[in-house]
Design goal:
heterodimer, A: alpha+beta, globular, B: about 325 residues, 13 helices
Chain lengths: ~525, ~325
């Protein structure tokens, strides 16, 4: 029966004129997104794709100001920090209305109960929603919230007090991250009563600039402008995420006018995009770092002279030209220059094979040595082709007598082995989460008080002076004071050369000429709050 | 006939067990598990990893996991996706109509175009048309789908602007999924523009997915027709003075169709395999697309359940073909 209906439909449609019927509707923006979100809860999932799909819907206590890593007001209009940097008091705005849907009509705006519910859902296993949608609040755990939080209290309907166990200023930036999105307690209670709690993460209700309309897996997500939004109202009426996984197809859709924005182009397509008069190409330094870590636990990398020699033996310029093809900038520090606290006075090691060979001889290795050089099996935002970079490094190192064997594993296995310090020279990288330098230094080069390196510190490098500076910076409330300490930490890191910094990638966003008001975020996210289409 | 049917159905059970076993073993041979894959550079603390793996039952011995899965399947429960936490059944049923729609259109295209081409090639055997067609069909059957798809997009969508690039319907339309078949849903939306858009979105994927079956159908029709055209009853028909058209279409084609029907049935496997690539290229939200993603995410329940459902489909179609063949040719039943 179905077959005959389809056949009939096919046959009738044959008579219709060919050609796309993409009739542009007024103020609709189609964004060719790169994948399907896991669901509509940014607390549970950790991918940028899911975060992008949720950002139009939800707000957080604090928000990153559009196009910056600066933290500003969100659902909280203002806040105070106690002098010991342990108690944070947030004053909520009173006009943050909740969206409504076919099944839910809110009776009140967002208040302290919602904030407490949203944190307790992730924090306490006694919360009835803790295990809903599989539980597993990875980001909440990653940002050390369970260890950091002492209590969250409601002072009154529109005041929340969060007390920490120890002073921690980067905590403010954490609150602007996606995992700290605020869900409606009233909606949660209603769903619990109806026996469908999982719907909270499938038919989301938020306070953001766009209301969720519909989601069709692997097809599209539709949002509409929320007229009751507390902030400046969105300029477009409808926002559509057209899910298109292949970058070549995304670009083709952009060229054909089927979407107005197509993120994550391949570097090879950049020249044709730049040459296309119908398109504009935005770019922004990525909040990331691609590096080669020297395993300080293994000989001869425990000798700083060897690490410096290798740093001088690799031609960074050649790697950037051959592999990044204009989509990267050379790195000399662990943090990218877009981040506050960046130490620009650090002078990168020059490419000087003769000096490198001399230094290696001083370290007692005049004939070089044999080692392995790890290359990730996958493309990452900070490293488009680790194998190719590995080959270029291998050739450079051979010139000073270092014979490097390229090694690779399946991606999960690769990370596990790298964290277990199995490699000698390992390529890896990092993408920042919250625009705080602490978010780079602590996970990537941090060690605990007993001198044990953090899991992601794959160079296994522990330096007391560096650690003291970084630890102290996390307790100071003043950003300028913190920045000085981070600059100091970068100078120490440069001197000790535990990593060879390769590049910070540049992120590109091609879009149609008729789109305006979009600001690229250094955090790599996509927000449509002020976007307009002519 | 009844015993034949029973015998064929009894053979399905070991096939199912084999399919579940193979898909289970293959996905477990791939390093990494669904928990580890979720964490990028950030990694995961060993104690948290152990906790999550325990919760998902991944710390149990493999044979125990396999038996538990078989038991679950025997109770018609395919589990839920580890990434979306939706039941596998529900996700399959949401996406399957898109695959069926595309596959049906592709096979219809292959039959409508392939059959006449095969017949003409057989009638004009040895002519430049015959050689040209057979050359083209070899090319078609060996065409890499991803390349062919991208070429079609570049030429017809980007270059000429005749067809849309990807998806099932323009984003200007929002069609409530009712049957899951976009053409039908668009039809019932009473919006001619939506039907036109849904149809135009089907053209390129149908051609790309239908190319290999088209080549196979054309070649099979040609060889089967050549065989039949040499039979005595055709000579008799011609001797009776029947028109060439009648001889070819009524007498020869009808008899030549039996092996062609079998081949068309067997194309289901090719179509489902091809759909995985075609759906990826054209962002066609079907089960192929879904399975590829489940491999990347090591979503064991989706991959195992999805493979089982697709295999079931192939088995049922093959059983259907066997039974039809048994009806057409009673000697097979023995």
């Amino acid at each position: 029966m179905k077959k005959s209906i389809v056949a009939a439909a096919c046959a009738v449609a044959l008579g219709l004129t060919l050609g796309a019927a993409a009739t542009a509707q007024a103020k609709t923006l189609v964004y060719c997104s790169e994948g399907s979100p896991e669901n509509f809860n940014p607390m549970i999932n950790t991918t940028g794709t899911t975060f992008d799909a949720n950002r139009p819907i939800y707000n957080r206590l604090l928000e990153f100001k559009l196009g910056t890593t600066e933290v500003g007001p969100g659902l909280a209009e203002s806040w105070e920090i106690s002098p010991d940097a342990k108690v944070f008091t947030f004053h909520l705005r009173k006009n943050a209305n909740w969206h409504s849907s076919k099944t839910f009509k809110p009776s009140r705006p967002a208040n302290a109960d919602d904030v407490i519910f949203s944190f307790e859902r992730q924090w306490k296993d006694t919360n009835p929603y803790h295990k809903v949608s599989g539980g597993g609040y990875d980001y909440f755990g990653d940002m050390d919230m369970p260890a950091l939080l002492q209590s969250i209290e409601k002072v009154d309907d529109y005041t929340v007090k969060i007390t920490l166990k120890e002073p921690n200023t980067p905590f403010l930036a954490d609150l602007a991250m996606d995992f700290a999105s605020i869900q409606s307690k009233e909606y949660a209670d209603a769903l619990l009563k109806s026996g469908h709690p999982e719907q909270i993460d499938q038919e989301p209700i938020g306070t953001g600039p766009f209301e969720f309309v519909a989601y069709q897996k692997d097809t599209s997500i539709r949002f509409k402008k929320f007229d009751g939004y507390w902030g400046p109202k969105a300029k477009i009426d409808t926002l559509v995420f057209a899910i298109t996984k292949d970058p070549a197809v995304r670009l083709a859709k952009l060229n054909a006018g089927e979407c107005q924005m197509a993120p994550y182009p391949t570097p090879a397509d950049l020249p044709s995009i730049k040459a296309n008069a119908k398109l504009q190409l935005l770019s922004q330094s990525g909040l990331n770092i691609g590096y080669l870590a020297f395993n300080n636990l293994k000989k001869p990398f425990d000798d700083v002279r060897v690490r410096r020699a290798l740093s001088m033996a690799i031609d960074k310029k050649a790697i950037l030209e051959a592999v990044y093809q204009g989509a990267g900038q050379p790195a000399k520090n662990l943090i990218p220059p877009t981040l506050w606290g960046y130490n620009n006075s650090v002078v990168d090691y020059p490419y000087d094979p003769a000096a490198a060979k001399k230094l290696l001889a001083e370290a007692g290795l005049p004939d070089g040595f044999e080692t392995d050089l790890w290359a990730m099996p996958v493309q990452r935002p900070y490293n488009p082709d680790a194998k190719r970079i590995g080959e270029l490094m291998q050739a450079d190192l051979a010139k000073i007598g270092v014979k490097a064997k390229i090694v690779s594993y399946e991606w999960g296995e690769y990370r596990k082995r790298a964290q277990n310090a199995e490699g000698q020279m390992v390529q890896l990288g990092w993408t920042g989460d919250n625009g705080d330098p602490d978010n780079f230094f602590v996970p990537l080069a941090g060690c605990n008080s007993e001198g044990k390196p953090a899991g992601n510190n794959i160079a296994k490098w522990c330096n007391k002076e560096f650690q003291d500076a970084v630890n102290k910076a996390a307790t100071l409330p003043n950003q300028a004071d913190r920045a000085k300490l981070y600059e100091q930490a970068q100078a120490i890191m440069h001197d000790q050369a535990p990593f060879y910094f390769i590049a910070h990638s540049v992120v590109y966003l091609p879009m149609a000429k008729n789109v305006s008001g979009f600001k690229m975020s250094p955090l790599g996210d996509h927000r449509f709050d002020e976007v307009d289409v002519q | 006939m009844f015993r034949f049917l029973l015998r064929r159905i009894a053979l399905i059970i070991p096939t199912f067990i084999g399919v579940t076993f193979l898909s289970f073993v293959l996905i477990h041979l791939v390093p990494g598990d669904p928990i580890e894959v979720r964490f990028g550079e950030r990694g995961i603390k060993p104690e948290r990893l152990a906790e999550l793996r325990h919760a998902a039952g991944l710390d149990r011995p493999l044979w125990e996991q396999f038996l538990a899965y078989e038991n679950q399947v025997a109770h018609f429960n395919l589990g839920e996706s580890v990434t979306t936490h939706n039941p596998v059944w529900q996700e399959f049923l949401t996406l399957f109509p898109a695959t069926v729609e595309l596959s049906l259109c592709a096979i219809l295209f292959a039959i409508i175009v392939g059959l006449p081409l095969g017949v003409i090639a057989a009638v004009k055997r040895g002519s430049p048309f015959d050689y040209g067609l057979m050359g083209l069909s070899v090319t078609g059957a060996s065409m890499p789908i991803f390349w062919w798809g991208l070429m079609m997009i570049l030429i017809f969508s980007v270059g000429l602007g005749w067809t849309p690039v990807s998806g099932r319907i323009s984003d200007a339309f929002y069609i409530e999924p009712w049957t899951g078949f976009m053409l039908i849903d668009a039809w019932f939306s009473d919006d001619a523009g939506a039907v036109q858009s849904a149809f135009s979105h089907l053209i390129l994927p149908t051609i790309v997915l239908g190319t290999i079956p088209l080549a196979t159908v054309a070649r099979m029709t040609r060889s089967s027709m050549l065989e039949v055209l040499g039979e005595d009853f055709i000579r008799t028909a011609r001797a009776k003075g029947l028109s060439g058209f009648r001889v070819v279409v009524i007498h020869a084609l009808r008899n030549a169709l039996i092996p062609v029907v079998t081949v068309i049935g067997l194309q289901v496997g090719t179509l489902l395999g091809g759909a995985i690539l075609t759906e990826t290229i054209f962002s066609w939200p079907g089960v192929g697309h879904w399975l590829i993603e489940s491999i990347q995410r090591r979503d064991y329940p989706v991959l195992q359940g999805g493979t089982l459902l697709v295999a079931t489909l192939a088995i049922v179609v093959n059983l259907g073909v066997d039974l039809t063949y048994g009806v057409l040719n009673p000697r097979i039943r023995r």
